[in-house]
Amino acid sequence: MQVKIQILVENTVPLSDLAGEHGFAALIEVDDTKILLDVGNKGTIMENSQLLGIDLQEIDAIVLSHGHYDHTGALPALLTEIGSKKIYAHSNLFEHRVVFAGGKIIVEPGTPFSQEQLEEAGGTLIFADDFTQIYPGVYISGEIPRANDFEDVGGNGTFKVERNGEFVDDLLPDDIALIIDHPDGLIIVSGCAHSGIINIMDYARFKTGRSEVLAFIGGTHLLDASDNRINKTIAYLQEENKVVDKLVVCHCTGFSASAKLYNALGSRVIKGEVGMEFCF
Asked: How far is the first Cα of the chain from the last one, in angstroms, to the nearest whole number?
């Protein structure tokens, strides 16, 4: 199995020709299969792909990691450019979401289009709420159990979702990851990891029966994490049987968390940026 993962949308860029954007998208190639995980918010994915010589019309499917605008927003425009595609996502993708601060709504971060608008744009929506194989050796996690006592969705309680006319805490059950069962170990790609990177890795190990993790690539939503959470995350990643060969932190990880992870884990930690590619 040959795997290549290239970051197409991320907050930062290493080259001036490419464009940064608050969001995330990655092109995942597994042998002859091409999958997009997330699409970012605006047209940056199309601009960067063109500059990188990538034809997005060739992709076989799109996986949406969760229902936030910075991971889904560009999808209708992208489908207009590249044609109809299969779209895998959790069924909570279109929930009405808000962020509360100071007793008022400051932003509505949810998916900025409806299911009907997505289908009108050419998307064939496939809900995958449970662990699902979508191609040989390629899985969608489905809803991820929150098994430990230190990881949370992030946002310090500001994420809310409308249920029965009221806003309640948003636990983001639609947060999913892509898992590749490579002969040398698991490769996990995440949008924001609102479920927690440890929960995600533990669940991937449990469902596949594999122990080795070659790489975890994507957002980790540690930018507002407590010292307790960071310390427990590092301690987990230092355990002999829980080692991750490559931790590529992106998007919502934050400078402080990235620095702490790098200082503790060394060269295993890489700051992901637009255009970077990783081959396995």
From this structure: 8
